[in-house]
Amino acid sequence: MTTQALRPSDRAEEVLERLWIETWEGNRRSIPLTDASLKGHEEGLAELFHEELARLHDGQVELTPAGLAQATQTVRRHRLAERLLTDVLEIEPVQMDVAACGIEHSLREGVDEAVCTLLGHPERCPHGKPIPPGACCRRAAKQAEREVAPLCNLRPGQSGRIAYVQTGEARKLQKLMAMGVLPGKTVRLIQGFPSYVFQVGHSQFAVDEGMARTIFVRLGEK
Amino acid sequence: MSVLLSVAPATEIVRYPPALAQALARLEPLLTADYGLTRRAVALLLLQGDAEMLELVRRLDPANAAAVAAIVSEAARESEQPLTYAVALARQAATEELLAETVSLPDPSGRSLAETISQLTIRPLTGLPILLAVLYFGLYQFVGQFGAGVLVGLLEDDLFGGLINPWLTAVVEQLVPWPPLQALLVGEYGVLTLAMTYAIALILPIVGTFFLVFSVIEDSGYLPRLALLIDRVFKLIGLNGRAVIPMVLGFGCDTMATIVTRVLETKRERVIATLLMALAIPCSAQLGVVLGLLSFNPGALAIWAAAVGSIFLLVGFLAARVLPGEQPSFYMELPPLRLPQPANVLAKTYARMEWYFLEVLPIFVFASVLIWLGQLTGLFDLFIAAVQPAMLALGLPQEAAVVFLFGFFRRDYGAAGLYDLADKGLLTGVQVVVAAVTLTLFVPCVAQFSVMIKERGLRTALAIFAFIVPFAFAVGVGLNALLTALGVTL
């Protein structure tokens, strides 16, 4: 999508972002040309008008459909950058804002998807504002079910190999080990309500949700 | 034993991860004393955090103890997973290899009958009706009608009432000239006429039939399935499904059940279970008499069951909120369902009956002596006078005070006293229900109370006792007010 249009300059992207935040996120169709948020960004705005990513109508500035799509991606990249700096590099908030503005322009052409996947498809930026999802997020939501799931997410009759047991509590771990719940063994869920009943090897056990949640199963494998 | 230490190690069947193997290699030379195990076994136990073994090392190899502890904690620190887990994983891998080479398992294709029935018992839609059926036929019909009805009738009325007691009374009156002693032995509450009669004619058939049914259910493997059905309900009252065993036993004998609360993992669960048993779980002796008492009107029975049941849930819920502590996990193995083996069932029933006769019955005989003393010294009359306002509040006649006093000594005494009053026509239907509810909730019998002190400590037992007395009466007063206000007649 971005390959067709000429890539907007950095300052045009800044204006795109502001417009998106002020209109789309602020629940308005347009903002006045004289709005404070557009001060000092006349060049970028002019570029947007030229590229038909924004238009002027009765003294109000609004995003065109093409502009909206681009702006969404821009905001996504900016907020992903913020997350990357905060979570992975642990940059202080003051420096983070400046750095994010710089990095976001580099997260293009798949790099943003790589960063998004690395961060585990975060839903909010450090300021708490939502991160627009990308194609990678939508794919992951569907695929996660096919990879590793906790026992309580299985349907009765489903089976798989135990991938790992995730609990910090030594006692729970010991109980599960005593039941023979160890990685590599096949487990089959018999029932989920009112308690989780499963079969491991030749024995059947019943556990509650607290314990079923800690057993992670790789589905479909025999 | 020391010969084992010098045997050359066979090819290792279990291969541990390198870090663990290294730790083992460093530990083994440090263990010089004779532990009764191979050095490798001791080292493995130490790495898995066995406190007893570490203590043993400190005693037997004091010079090396510090170094040993250092190696163990270093290995634990460097490992990503808990060491017990790593060891278990290694052993499991070895087991899988061995099995693959030696055992061929048939693919479990068709479902056996036992498996089908098992599935029926654990699905809520079919499981709950099955549970109700088990309760109805097991408890109500077999213990209630057959045990408390037929057997008790035979033993109490025909055998003791008709034959033994009159003969005993005659003999004692001939041999013992002193009236008070006569009263102790064969009087209205005599040790021989009442205590022994009740022990053999009432307790034995009721408790015996209950233990029989319980043993059958236990041997068939049904109890864990019951546990998984009610786990969610039990979680509301601060327990978990594993508490099903002591709770169900409580319907047989609360004293035994209070001891069995030892199987519960946390102190919080044990206290809640003890409280609920003391308050709202009637033992089979009491249950038998109460069922007989209320059978005149199914509505009365329903009200009693609803009142006691809701108090059970309410108090459990509140206790779970008030008492600190965490909720333990529910985990239970489901053994395959199978036909109970008569030999097993009889052995279990016999063992429980034997315990009951040796541990509980003497206390009941002692209680009879206390009652005799109380009557003799006039303490009873004092008590009745003191409790009169409470009886009034409950809407009961003054004579009912004796019922509650006796209820402390033996739950069935209390219920039987109530039965007598009702028989004499001294109570209306509503009064019977109110008295039955209050009596059921009232304090545990003296045997249970003494076990409570032993298991939970004097303070907790006294606190429970102090809570139950006013609470039971409050519920009775409330119920009386409610039924009267609603204009219910039974």
Features:
heterodimer, A: 222 residues, alpha+beta, three-stranded antiparallel β-sheet, 9 strands, elongated, B: 490 residues, mainly alpha, 1% strand
Describe the structure.
The complex is a heterodimer of chains A (222) and B (490). By secondary structure, chain A is of the alpha+beta class. Chain A contains 8 helices and 9 strands. Chain A has a 6-stranded antiparallel beta sheet. In chain A, strands 1-3-2 form a 3-stranded antiparallel beta sheet. In chain A, a hairpin with a 4-residue loop joins strand 6 and strand 7. The longest helix of chain A is centred in the middle third of the chain and has 24 residues. The radius of gyration of chain A is 25 Å and the shape is elongated. In chain B, 76% of the residues lie in helices and 1% in strands. Chain B has 24 helices and 1 strand. Chain B starts with a helix and ends with a helix. The mean pLDDT of chain B is 84. Chain B is mainly α and 490 residues long. At the A-B interface, helix 7 and strand 8 of A face helix 6, helix 11 and strand 1 of B. Strand 8 of chain A pairs antiparallel with strand 1 of chain B.
Topology:
The complex is a heterodimer of chains A (222) and B (490).
Chain A: H1 10-25, E1 31-32, H2 42-51, E2 54-57, E3 60-63, H3 65-88, H4 93-103, H5 111-118, H6 135-143, E4 148-150, E5 159-165, H7 170-178, E6 186-191, E7 196-200, E8 203-207, H8 209-212, E9 215-219
Antiparallel strand pairs in A: 1-3, 2-3, 4-9, 5-6, 5-9, 6-7, 7-8
Chain B: H1 2-5, H2 18-27, H3 39-47, H4 51-60, H5 65-78, H6 83-102, H7 113-122, H8 124-175, H9 179-186, H10 191-220, H11 223-236, H12 244-250, H13 254-260, H14 267-280, H15 284-294, H16 298-322, E1 331-334, H17 342-359, H18 361-377, H19 379-394, H20 400-409, H21 411-423, H22 429-441, H23 446-456, H24 458-486
Helix pairs in contact in B: 2-3, 2-5, 4-5, 7-8, 8-9, 8-10, 8-15, 10-17, 10-18, 12-13, 13-23, 14-16, 14-23, 14-24, 15-21, 15-22, 16-22, 19-20, 20-21, 21-22, 22-24, 23-24
